[in-house]
Specification:
alpha+beta; transmembrane; three-stranded antiparallel sheet; Immunoglobulin-like; about 170 residues
Length: about 170
């Protein structure tokens, strides 16, 4: 008899110091809106239009790069070039760039059809003529220009002017 009375008391009385957090429902971790619809629209409009206005103001103040003319002459020609052995010359398709300015032009970059590029480390001296093989021009993925495969429609030469601006010369063929 005494066994049954002790078992019933243990199951009916809860302990007063039990953890109540176990019995609470789980907290929601879903995101809740922090901005109103109007606030979100204003934030998105600001993110879109502030850079646009900034670039527009920059363009008005400093002008387009093509407004700074680079004083060079550009020709497409076929000229004899030295072979690798250096004992003879072979005819090759070339791009000829001549500096017509009274200052040297550093940081010269050239491209054919806006796709094949060549960077010239050495500055182009006053009156100097630079003769470059067309086959030396390459894309960013190192595919080289093959003369005669496609026609050259445009050549663009850029270089640094004494004012620090980037000068551009575009020739359409």
């Amino acid at each position: 008899m005494s066994d049954s009375s002790t078992n019933s008391n243990a199951t009916t009385v809860p302990e007063p110091d039990s953890n109540q957090a176990v019995h609470e429902p789980p907290r929601s971790i879903a995101p809740t809106p922090q901005l109103s619809t109007r606030g979100l629209f204003i934030a998105l409009a600001t993110v879109c239009f502030v850079p646009l206005f900034g670039l527009s103001i920059y363009a008005v103040i400093f002008g387009k790069a093509s407004e700074h003319e680079l004083p060079v002459e550009i020709l497409i020609d076929r000229r004899p070039l030295m072979t690798v052995e250096g004992n003879s010359q072979l005819m090759d398709d070339v791009v000829v760039v001549t500096n017509e300015a009274d200052f040297e032009i550093p940081n010269i970059t050239m491209n054919l059809n806006g796709q094949y590029f060549l960077y010239q480390d050495k500055p182009l001296a006053v009156g100097e003529t630079l003769v470059l093989r067309q086959a030396a021009f390459a894309t960013k993925s190192s595919q080289f220009w093959v003369p005669g495969r496609y026609p050259i429609t445009e050549i663009t030469v850029t270089g640094k002017l004494p004012t620090g601006a980037r000068g551009v010369k575009e020739v359409q063929f």
